[in-house]
Amino acid sequence: MSTTPGAAPLLIACALGIEQFALRTGGDRGSADGPVTVLRTGMGPGAAERAVTRALAGPALSGAAVLATGFCAGLAPGMHPGDLVVADETRDPRGTTPCVGTELLVKELSRALPGRTVHTGPLTGSDHVVRGQERSELLATGAIAVDMESAATLHSAVRAGMRPVAAVRVVVDAPEHELVRIGTVRGGISAFRVLRAVLPAFFEWHRSLLLPRR
């Protein structure tokens, strides 16, 4: 992978082995403008917090931009497996973490995945898989999607030092398309294929952070 000498690193955090596999086998990693680490945190907010805190404590990633990614549950009617969610903020009981470069991510994801719907809005955190009525309750708070790690990942990242953070998730199930197990039905396969194609957009986001401000 060719990188710009001295460029700030990028940490891409996901929870599951299948998500890490999709990210590592998809896209052109040679287009990155700095060192890229794909970190598998493990499932749940506690695991994400521990893994990200530990990774950012090391000198190699101390100044890294952080992007949380992987699968999520869509909350809004009309969402479909394979849709993309770009968070403008993440939420959990500790508060909200604003995301950086949301509009650029939407533009680059639309370019990388033409025809895929990209949703933008708050991404909320949970410590368990959300089903049924709880989905409607979370939608009523204004959130458009939920996952277990993004909010903890971004909270831990900014707690470790000021840095750009973002969250991009792929809908693997939605109100009309509840998924029992990832990879066993068409929705899971569709989400996996989408996740394999997101790296170029992530690299453009990271590259934009390295440009001098005017």
- The rough form would be described as globular
Would you tell me the structural class of the helices and strands? alpha/beta
Uncertain segments of ≥5 residues (pLDDT<50)?
Answer: 181-185
Mean pLDDT: 88
Order of secondary-structure elements: EHEHEEEHEHEHEHH
Total of DSSP H or I helical runs spanning 4+ residues: 7
Strand content: 15-25%
Oligomer: single chain
- Radius of gyration, taken over Cα atoms and rounded to an integer in Å: 16 Å
Quick one: biggest sheet?
5 strands, mixed, barrel
Q: Report the helical percentage.
A: 25-40%
Within the largest sheet, what's the order of strands? 3-7-6-4-8
> N- to C-terminal separation?
29 Å
**Number of DSSP E strands:** 8
Description:
The chain has helices at 17-25, 45-57, 102-112, 132-139, 150-159, 186-195, 199-210; strands at 10-14, 36-40, 65-74, 84-92, 95-98, 118-125, 145-147, 165-173. With 214 residues, the chain is α/β, with parallel strands linked by helices. The protein has a five-stranded mixed β-barrel, surrounded by four helices. Helix 2 runs parallel beside helix 5 and helix 3 (102-112) runs antiparallel to helix 7 (199-210). The longest helix is centred in the N-terminal third of the chain and has 13 residues, at 45-57. It is globular and about 45 Å long. Mean pLDDT is 88; it is low at 181-185.
